[in-house]
Structures
1.
Amino acid sequence: MRYLYNFAIFFTGIAVRIIALFNEKINLFVQGRKETFSILRKGVSSEEKTIWMHCASLGEFEQGRPVLESLKKSLPEYKIVLSFFSPSGYEVQKNYEGADLVVYLPLDTESNAKRFVQLVHPSIALFVKYEFWPNILKELKSLKIETLLVSGIFRKDQLFFKSYGNWMRQSLKAFTYFFVQNEDSQKLLDGIGFKNISVSGDTRFDRVSNILEQDNHLKFLDNFVKDRIVIVAGSTWPKDEKILAKFMNENQNEAVCMVVAPHNIVPKDILRLKESFTCKTSLYSEGIFSSESKVFIADTVGILTKIYSYGHLAYVGGGFDKDGVHNVLEPAVFGIPLIIGPEFEKFEEAKDLVDLGGCLVANDESDFLNKMNLLIKDKSLREKTGDITKLFIKNNTGATEIISSYIREKLK
């Protein structure tokens, strides 16, 4: 199977170079990797001690970030190398100040794996959530480099747990220790013979908990919300926005307003979104922040967490698309009730919040309208549901310190 894997990786490299001629994102994927070894040669000397963290994309970065920042403070003598697989992670975080070097992970060929690990020569390697590259893991194991999985999560449908997945199970033997999010993941690993496991939880809880310590004030929103009940709709997609528009167009309650923060802020899509609302609607880019508008569209990036702090309830987008719901933890930390669409089963934190009652699931447009109206009318229900989300965050913090303490002990 390893031969087939290497064969597939080889032809993947050829294929992406061809596709890159016609696809901007894939072109970033290809061109960025051309610089990886040059950056490492110039940025890491053979005498320096390094810690390497790898993240697939932005979501995994947010899980690894609290650990990385903790190590940056407590182990300043180590140079930190951060790698990404996806352009959507690298292009956003390539100037991240918490790492000394940020690079693309090269394609997982045997030669690339040897060269990459040799240049980085990490004292410890950290993989976040579920990135498993057989050749790189094989190289780390052969060099006896301490290798950890951070905030790992496993599902029974993964190749490791299939009767024909032995060659991938061998890759897991490269890990010195697994820090997993839940007991289900621990049981799955235990079932194939791994005992070096700790259920430490999800480091993202620590990350979002820190949001409460930052200044979340946005003066322009003070002018918009006034004393109204604020619905924050975050990371929305067109299917979400169709339902949101119907709700606000039919809602006659002047004490209710909505802030929409779309996932994509392409100008033509923002115009389409604005025109879908028949009530008075303003855009961040227009610079008009008046309470005369009933809907405010935040067509900008980087302020969604602060916007959530103004909410009395939140709708988190993505749940009506096959890829599933976006981050429910960011609004939950502010102790407000959540509503999401039906596609959330792949996200443990969303499932847990639904089970606890802090997050309501709208299965269709009619269900959304009913649940939204219920929360708006019943202040006591809003507060009770919000208390659940706040306590959920509080009860799940601490993973960062568990993992960081282990690493500090190993690197003494």
2.
Amino acid sequence: MINKLVKKIQQTQAPIVVGLDPMLSYVPEHILKKSYAEFGETLEGAADAVWQFNKEIIDHTYDLIPAVKPQIAMYEQFGIPGLAAFEKTVAYCQQKDLVVIGDVKRGDIGSTSAAYATGHLGKVQVGSKSYAPFHEDFITVNPYLGTDGISPFIEVCKQEKKGLFILVKTSNPSSGEFQDRLIDGRPLYEWVGEQVAAWGQEHMGDSYSYIGAVVGATYPEMGKVLRRLMPKSFLLVPGYGAQGGQGKDLVSYFNEDGLGAIVNSSRGIIAAYKQEKYQQFGPERFGEASRVAVEAMIADIAGALKR
């Protein structure tokens, strides 16, 4: 799957991923009214509104981008109907030939990690039949429990030719409370980055590993160090736009081949119609606003990489 991601990035010339992290406050009123009219003000109604919102954005952007990243918590908050909307979103994106990165941040040990890996990346056996429950192409994983928490995920990835993005240096303000702590004179995120590179050697694609890393756009100097420590790992870079990251901050996240990183924007794209610069579209044309926001992001990053 890493080979497909690289190919899609080369085809679109857009090293970006759209974060499908819908809150009900992002969903325009006309969609909410329609869903509530059909399902009532219920979890089913909320989940349907989220699905309809996602579909509109996907339909307006899929030809511009290589990948999407649905954050599962935004769906889990609506219970079982929300999870059904998550799976429907994943399936629809794959029908549009998009690579799907499930932002699930799982991490445990032994059989529990194996079950998470099976549910999101693999197949579960039920009698004589097997099923792929959520069937994402990549997922995000928390490495805090160490190698025995990661190995079950890597084993499923090898079987299914799928991949991981492992949390290394996250974009949130308090990430440094643990991730920046010094161990033998070096910050923890460097030790984790080196281990990600080592895990990645076990599962290589043509030019990059199936085992990538999450490195926030909000810490560009740290990103530069981690790029050097993980030369064959793709970097998933959150924190662009709404969290303050800009194209000019991201040059060091890429390798000399112009590859090696994919930059995420979530509410900056899916809620673009709420921004003053896209207000001419209004809620009725929110999908068009998202498309223009994607085009602007592509141009920003491309311009930065050409400098």
3.
Amino acid sequence: MAKEPEKKSLKNYVSNDDIGEDVRRELFRLQLECRHVEQKAYDLFLQNLIKGTSHLGLGQEAIAAGFGGAMKEGDYTFCTYRGHNHTLVRGASMTGVLGELMGRQCGLLGGKGGSMHLTSVEHGAMGSYAIIGAHLPIAIGAAWSAQYRKSDQVTVCFFGDGTTNIGAFHEALNMAQVWKLPVIFVCENNLYMEYTPISEVTAVENPAADRASAYGLESIIVDGNDADEVYRHAMAALEKAREGEGPSLIEAKTYRHSGHSRADPGDYRPDGELESWLKRDPLPMYRNRLLEFGLAEDEVVEMEEEVIKRVDEATEIAKSSPPPTEEVMATEVWADGSSTWRN
């Protein structure tokens, strides 16, 4: 009887070697870009230059940066309505992101998609999805395509803790494992599903990791506020997927600094909770780490000032861009509700 091949654990791929100065510079830069673009988006909203609402990932930058720094060109990213950071780290321009949020022609989608639908196919950012859990089956479709084409591409699918209670989560994990698809599921557990604590409506303590075994997957929990830890696990999961060893499920513990959306003051959170998490803000933590590893303070300040300058420049370009014309507005939309498009 043939011996069953040894089942590899993600631990087989994780290295404790130092990440290196060049990668750490990149991870810090990515986190800075995410933080300052979203802070600018908040300011623009207060100036009534961004209409409607949007969902910021302030405090969750280390997850996007860790994966963004690890993924290869050609890999696929699928994310939620809280997807500004995940789109930026794949290489989408600040001008394109801010322009889209403001509904301007320079936006990634010409100003028609807005905050919750950021997409940049050329950078592998395959869309932000406003319907909870809707993108997980689409993500495994992309992974199946890569497997079929033997393209070496890996799909990374980000979602919130509330998605773990949606049927699509379980269906996607099951199929991904059965077919050994090159996909990584990343649960950004920020403790709240909109206004409700995930712990109040979920039977297990860790909504993603504690369910992994049901699909033959490893239970993996990482500190989602530590870009180095996220990067190491991202690299390991990506390598595992490229080797044909199938999917991974990673639960990254983190916390959003603001409410669910602009309309949410977040006053349902217990006293002291936000203050406690602010002490573990990923940006100051990583800045201190760079200094501890010997990077000069002047160099760190130069990086920070350069990012702020680029964000300000992108903002002014986006503000000067006009809204989409009527002709543009009437394209790429349903004309009559059938298969006819007005293009």
